[in-house]
Amino acid sequence: MTVTRFAPSPTGRLHLGHAFSALFAQRAAHAAGGRFLLRIEDTDRGRCRPEFEAGIYEDLAWLGLDWEKPVRRQSEHMADYAAALARLEGMGLLYKCFCTRAEIMREIEAAGGAPHESGALYPGTCRHRAADDVATRVASGAPYALRLDVRKALEVTGPLEWIDRAAGRQRAAPERLGDVVLARKEFPASYHLAVVHDDRLQQIDLVTRGVDLFEATHIHRLLQALLGYAAPAYWHHRLVLDEKGQRLAKRAGGMALKELREAGKTAASILKELDF
Ligand code: GLU
User: Fold this and answer.
1) Banded pLDDT at 187 (limits 50, 70, 90)
2) Where are the alpha helices (DSSP H) in 64-203?
3) What does the pLDDT read at residue 107?
4) pTM for the full predicted model
5) Which atom of ligand 1 is the closest one to the Cα of 9?
6) Cα 180 to Cα 201: distance, rounded to the nearest angstrom
7) Which H or E run contains 70?
8) Is residue 195 lining ligand 1, measured as CB closer than 6 Å?
9) What percent of the chain has a predicted confidence (pLDDT) above 90?
């Protein structure tokens, strides 16, 4: 049974790129007689808005998509992600990183966010901090993030592979993302951990998403192996580009489905434009 999902974060209105991704996921499921789910990835309460979540349902229904209910909303399951995190911590694979948020933002993906923009790798400044140094910092109330020691994790799992329907068999190379942030102090979730946990829980066996998340899959494969989860198949699809050849995520203005609808476009014309 093929089970796919579309997993948007309600941080803005959906645009043509989201429409393509959702239609792609539904088509992959239906072509195989399978199931299609929608998941709301709203762990980042600072950036998510109820009106954007409502917009997701409105836009997808307008496109003619039909997803299984109930919809899983990640913000309602933070304890699940905390438990997965605790398992990794118990394996001695996490370390506290006190580098400032500004440095983290500059060096690597925004903590907890989907790493659409690949930044420089975290240089490992806090990886080998002495235990008493860590204890002093924690006691002083210094904020920290929990990072995965990727090299150590790979020693536990050994070499890993994953399959992409478009790009073929891949050797998992999580070191390409460095020691990713898996949680922040008092916020036990990150995109990576929540997505891996939920894909397994919801029995997703074909993860379809844009190629902008191709690199993240290396880390997801590692997390699956550490947590004892079976690996789904992947199918990273093309991104929808604007007339200047730029990704829509950066410049959604004018391409939001709501705006296109209000400008008189029909769902049928959008599907045609996207080759569905
Ligand atoms: N929620 C993620 C995003 O908004 C996508 C998650 C996924 O498909 O793995 O980009």
Assistant:
1) confident
2) 78-90, 101-107, 131-139, 150-157, 191-201
3) 54
4) 0.92
5) 4
6) 22
7) strand 68-73
8) yes
9) 80
